[in-house]
Amino acid sequence: MQGLHLRKYGAAATINFDLFEVDGVDFRVDAVHAAGDTVIMKDEGAEASTTNSFTDEGKGYSLVLTATEMQAARIVVYVVDLTATKVWLDRKIIIETYGNVSAEHEFDLDLATQPVNLTQMGGVVQSATDLKNFADAGYDPSVNKVEGVKLADVATTLTGHTVQTGDNFPRLGAPTGASVSADIAVVEGQTDDIGVEGAGLTAIPDSAGTTTLLGRIPAALFSGITSLAEWLGLIAGKQVGDATARTEIRATGAGSGTFDETTDSEEAIRDTAPLGTTMRGTDGVDTATMRGTDGVDTATMRGTDSAATETKQDIIDTNVDEIKLKTDNLPESIKKNAARADLPFLMVDDTDHVTPEVSLTVTGQRSLDGGAFSAVTGSITNIGSGIYSFDAAAADTNADMVIYRFSATGADDTFLSFKTVA
């Protein structure tokens, strides 16, 4: 049985409850509300029918009380079967409200932060002014006192105190100067010239007062360079770069360089050898031949026994011709959205699933890219001996993946599937 229900004052609420059969053993799960079956009493006042009927929720029931019905400290709802022959035991539901001065419990359970009305501390009544001043400005013995816990307005002089040499003293150590604060002042005076105040160690000057890295690099290091970025761009990439930087690169050394970023940059060299159309020889000249181990350009490649390898090339050519001969007769793939004639297929008996079936009336269906099967547009011809031919129309191939299904009375269905090409 459910106990006390706790709900907020003046807020509509849903009350869940159960009903029992008249024998008091099993739940009554099919009770139907009739007028007058639910009655409400507020704060021991007059009883009245509830605004809403209860609702069957399965094994239990729910009743919605309106905001007006919830305006009471104590609420009792009676659920009574008024029929001549009762089908459920009468039920009483007790509700207590909270969150209002008129509620049974003024404390509001719905608030995350509760308002506090403090009138006493340690059982001593405090004035509102003292409490507010204490909260706003803290303790002040001459102004903001707390009754019952006053501290002396004037502190007595500390006498007879022994110099402490406990844990903190050995850890800090004796100051070099008059005090620890005096030592700190000395350190501060010795570090005032480290960078700009507030900049940390990001602007530490050298002996000449220079605070930036670039300012410390000798000017002669970049003599003859208008833009280091343009130089690096020419050296790295083969795109046409800055003309000034190219002239400056060519002027280095003896001053007769022929550097060209389109052929001499890192990217150009990568694309030329060994994956380019030509391979650079050891003499630095592009050549259509490959240099042998004897240093002489040759139209053939020598093996480890120094024998020419034309014979090996002949063997490779022969093998390629044999492979081509075997693959030239492989069936072509079906082209997408293009007619394709003479697709053969076999129809077999639906009893033994082996014997070819002749003289059938075969119908065809197609599934395009996994879609539903529908009738094909092309035609089906009986070749003989259980073999039939399908001439597919362009509409029958208009998909990346095509499945054909061929059916006839007395025969198993035959399926053909193709992945088309563009």
Strand content: 15-25%
Question: What is the gyration radius calculated from CA atoms?
Answer: 51 Å
- What is the CATH fold-level name of the domain at 5-98? Immunoglobulin-like
Question: At CATH's second level, what is the architecture of the domain at 5-98?
Answer: Sandwich
Q: Using DSSP, what is the number of strands?
A: 21
Q: Tell me the strand order in the biggest sheet.
A: 1-8-7-3-4
Tell me about the biggest sheet?
5 strands, mixed
Query: What gross morphology would you assign?
Result: flat
Mean pLDDT, rounded to whole units? 82
* CATH class descriptor of the domain at 5-98: Mainly Beta
Task: Briefly note the structural class of the backbone.
Answer: alpha+beta
Distance between the termini: 75 Å
Q: What's the tally of helices? A: 9
Give the uncertain stretches in residue-range form. Answer: 275-293, 297-303
Question: SSE layout and pairings?
Answer:
Elements: E1 5-8, E2 13-17, E3 38-42, E4 47-49, E5 55-56, E6 61-65, E7 74-79, E8 91-98, E9 120-121, E10 124-125, H1 128-137, H2 168-172, H3 180-191, H4 213-216, H5 228-236, H6 243-250, H7 261-264, H8 266-272, E11 279-280, E12 286-287, E13 290-291, E14 297-298, H9 310-327, E15 340-346, E16 363-368, E17 374-375, E18 379-384, E19 387-392, E20 401-407, E21 414-419
Parallel strand pairs: 1-8
Antiparallel strand pairs: 2-6, 3-4, 3-7, 5-6, 7-8, 9-10, 11-12, 13-14, 15-19, 16-17, 16-20, 18-19, 20-21
Can you describe this structure?
- By secondary structure, the chain is an alpha+beta fold.
- Among the domains are: 5-98, Immunoglobulin-like, CATH 2.60.40; 120-149, no CATH class; 213-289, no CATH class; 340-419, Immunoglobulin-like (Sandwich), CATH 2.60.40.10.
- It has 9 helices and 21 strands.
- The chain has helices spanning 128-137, 168-172, 180-191, 213-216, 228-236, 243-250, 261-264, 266-272, 310-327; strands spanning 5-8, 13-17, 38-42, 47-49, 55-56, 61-65, 74-79, 91-98, 120-121, 124-125, 279-280, 286-287, 290-291, 297-298, 340-346, 363-368, 374-375, 379-384, 387-392, 401-407, 414-419.
- The strands form 7 sheets. It has a 5-stranded mixed sheet with strand order 1-8-7-3-4, with no helix packed on it. It has a 4-stranded antiparallel sheet with strand order 17-16-20-21, with no helix packed on it. A 3-stranded antiparallel sheet has the order 2-6-5, with no helix packed on it.
- The radius of gyration is 51 Å and the shape is flat.
- Residues 275-293 and 297-303 have low confidence and may be disordered.
